[in-house]
Amino acid sequence: MNQILENHPQHRKTLYGRRQSRPLKDRQKTLFDTLLPAITFSGLENELFVGQKQIWVEIGFGGGEHLCKQALSNPDVAFIGCEPFVNGVGSLLSQIDDFNLKNVKVFQNDARFLLEVLPSASLDKVFLLFPDPWPKKRHFKRRFVQKETIREIHRLLKPGGEWRIATDHAGYASWVKEQFSDPEISALFTWQRQDVYMRPDVNEWPETRYEEKANLAKRKSAFFSFLSK
Predict the structure, then answer these.
(1) pLDDT by residue (tens digit) across 123-139?
(2) Which of 76, 132, 195, 201 is catalytic?
(3) In terms of Cα–Cα distance, which of 143, 177, 150, 35 is closest to 99?
(4) CB neighbour burial string for 114-145, b if at least 16 within 10 angstroms, e if fewer
(5) Binning pLDDT at 50, 70 and 90, where does residue 44 land?
(6) What is this structure's pTM?
(7) Rounded to whole angstroms, what are the CA distances from 67 to 18, 28, 90?
């Protein structure tokens, strides 16, 4: 990871939000020392994984529930999970250890650093599930979904590759629709789900803790799927 960050001075990008909310559990502290170094994605591997047919990336995996379930259901797929939040990484490490997952690597920093160094047409799927909506207008520039980022994801996806986005924030859902309706962007991606408020099959699209919280709060979630042209 340090090799990637050496080429990305901190003044180029700012990572907003907290890095940690509470102390790690003793087991998680141990896994940070023992497991994380072995599965950290540095960006320098000539072969990301051995034996995996596809590469899927989750941007901001939160507590890791979705990533873990996808990795269990798709053992022939290589996963890279991006998450700067220490507690989220600790949660995922516990799940990786519990299920002895061998097809997951972790990038513990801003996903934008990682995206810039990945080869073009190297990814089969990208997930952005329940990102921080940054609801205040003056913070809209902090939202991950921006035209620049959309173009970068398109560069990384293989033709026909899929980008899934989910949000329980009505303003963010409208923002996603607006960005992908721009003629420049619509030339890059094809919308797959016309009714974004219809819940996909949970076996195909597992729940996250953030979706569960949204359901308890009676907030409707939107589920977008875009295929790279």
Answers:
(1) 999 999 999 999 999 99
(2) 132
(3) 35
(4) bbbebeeeebbbbbbbbbebbeeeeeeeebbb
(5) low
(6) 0.90
(7) 21, 18, 13
Provide mean pLDDT across the span 5-26.
56
Q: Residue 108 in contact with residue 94, Cβ under 8 Å?
A: no
Question: pLDDT value at position 22?
Answer: 72
Q: Which residue has the tokens 């026909």?
A: 160
Superfamily of domain 2-228 in the CATH hierarchy: Vaccinia Virus protein VP39 (3.40.50.150)
Q: Both ends of the chain: CA-CA distance in Å?
A: 31
Active-site residue, 132 included: yes
User: Where are the alpha helices (H) located in the chain, listed in sequence order?
Assistant: 2-6, 26-34, 36-39, 65-73, 86-99, 111-117, 147-156, 170-181, 183-186, 209-216
Q: Pick the closest to residue 186 from 198, 197, 195, 178 (CA basis).
A: 178
- Integer angstrom CA distances of residue 150 from 67, 75, 110, 195: 21, 28, 16, 21
Q: Backbone phi, then psi, for 178, in 5-degree steps?
A: -65, -45
Residues 48-105 pLDDT 10s: 666 678 999 999 999 999 999 999 999 999 999 999 999 999 999 999 999 999 999 9
Segment 36-40 shows an average pLDDT of 94
Q: Locate tokens 């995922």: which residue?
A: 92
Q: What is the CA radius of gyration of the chain?
A: 17
Give the residue extent of every domain in the chain.
2-228
Residues in the chain: 229
